[in-house]
Amino acid sequence: VVQGFHHDLLYSDRSLVKEINWISGNPPDSDIPMTAKFRYRQKDVEVSLESSSSGETWVRYPSRARAVTPGQACVFYQGDRCLGGGTIDMVFCGDETRGGRLPNE
Predict the structure, then answer these.
(1) Is there a contact between 90 and 70 (Cβ–Cβ < 8 Å)?
(2) How confident is the model at residue 63 (pLDDT cuts 50, 70, 90)?
(3) Which of 9, 19, 44, 47 is 20 to 30 A from 64 in CA distance terms?
């Protein structure tokens, strides 16, 4: 928790998203332009996806996004078409972790 609406710790440039459900059944090609919505009333953010060999999906956004929060949904769009969505697991800015989900007990 930090004071202020524009505190630097509220911003991130990438996140790890898990449990993604793609509407088509398969992830989209990595070179198609897409956006993501991290909060209901926020503007869509341009993103790119990067899958790791372990099956994790990294979401990168060239313009830092505010208040991307672990445990909340990340929904992917191409224009007005919903491509799918998943759960934000961890959030980063540069080399710093901005937050992560607590393990289930």
Answers:
(1) yes
(2) confident
(3) 19
